[in-house]
Write the structure tokens for this entry.
Amino acid sequence: MKRLVTVAEMTLRELVRRRGVLLLLLLMPLVFWMIRRDSHVGQSIRALFLGISWAVSTAALFATSAARELESRLRLAGYRPHHLYLGRMLGL
């Protein structure tokens, strides 16, 4: 369990270093919702979920690209692939 927390912590540190990306990830779902909020309620909720899914997939893309260098070091330290995968998912 400690290994999963370590990988999750490293993932969160990498995401926090990119403040502009975090701002974009927080604002984009809100923008999607605000565009459609005057229309039907179901459409605004659908747009909100679309924005949230976009934000999560973008965060996963940035976490994956940032983790490539770190994963090789952790593999040499004895971490298994499932530790790396589950820890990254826990961090996101």
Summary: The first helix runs from residue 2 to 16. The CA atoms of residues 11 and 88 lie 6 Å apart.
